[in-house]
Amino acid sequence: MRTIPRPxxxxxxxxxxxxxxxxxxxxxxxxxxxxxxDDPTTAGVLHSAWSGDPAVVVPSPPGAGxxxxxxxxxxxxxxxxxxxxxxxxxxxxxxxxxxxRLGALDCPARLIWPAKHPTPDLSDGTATVVTGRSVRxxxxxxxxxxxxxxxxxxxxxxxLAADVLVVDEAWQATYADVGALGAFAPxxxxxxxxxxxxxxxTGQTRRWDASPTGPHLPAPAALxxxxxxxxxxxxxxxTWRLGPATTRLIQPTFYPxxxxxxxxxxxxxxxxxxxPLPEVSAHPVTATAGPGDPALTGTCADLARALLATTLxxxxxxxxxxxxxxxxVAAHVSQAAAVRALLAALPDVLVxxxxxxxxxxxxxxxxxxxLAGYRDPTAFGTAxxxxxxxxxxxRAHLTVVTxxxxxxxxxxxxxDPATLTHRALLDALLT
Length: 431
Prior knowledge:
The protein has 431 residues and is of the alpha/beta class. It folds into two domains: 32-201 and 211-236, P-loop containing nucleotide triphosphate hydrolases (Rossmann fold); 244-430, P-loop containing nucleotide triphosphate hydrolases (Rossmann fold). Helices cover 29% and strands 19% of the residues. The chain contains 13 helices and 18 strands. The termini are far apart. Mean pLDDT is 91; it is low at 1-15.
């Protein structure tokens, strides 16, 4: 209530403004995982998960930032919504990479690791490694546990029950895998690349040939086919790894239902004379001794050595190409082993098969065409997922070593759809 002063009563003087006003309250520090809100698409994934959608599927092209999204999503749900988040990776290497990403986001995630295997180094962040059967989520508040899909399927859902389970590289997981993982959480988020290698299944699957929900099929596709009305789909439509030329090559070939564009910053290799190398090129070789012909593997090694004489130009400047900038990708383990032996003096060059290098990238790559040396279009050689992985490991430059006989092989009688696709792909590479 306002007080009226009596007559003759001196009116209190007004307070004198301070010469040093009180400082404004500092804005709360932004959590590193808040970057998920900086892009409408990643924000859409968070919205679907936060809204409680029972299943969220996130299809993505190569180099779209899938692992980053998984880390940002898990850290946000754990730190801001106090949810228990489980992450299922397809390999131990992928699990370690996710743990490192979460550690860099100041998220106290824990990586479940086999006690008999050497412990990975997570010292640069807040993530930690835990072993044994007594692993639990925190008693209160949110938390993140990371393990391989195989490790989750052998765990007790009553012990490791989560609020949300995120499946990384979900197109490599079978529908049966995700069915088993569903026991751990009422909500599942599947993130992955629909164009890459399908799950490896050992066993007879012929009985499900006509079924869109076979237990051997990639989990997201079967999940949508079985429960489409309950599945939210948020698509990542930009690649930050592949340049425009590579995008034009692989998008219509491997992703006809997922249009995407390149947002990779300008990046290229230049030869010793300063001339920029093309983003994608082909190097035909005549092979007469099958897929293991030394002419093929030797050419791959020679081209990798030649790239060491080039320079790499990015938004950060220009520098010489180093062995760590290079990858050589082959279809067969024996081919990769032969190239690795030829490059023994350059151990930092990444050499491996498509299966081994899936999820990895380098500024430059040399790829041995999966049909090189063959005289028939085998099912292994024409597998589209394998070719997609092989042609998408690079950022600035790709050289594909081809066999001069392969065009004729692909034009044989009664071609199947995969053979026709490879024919168009090879024509595009050679023109």
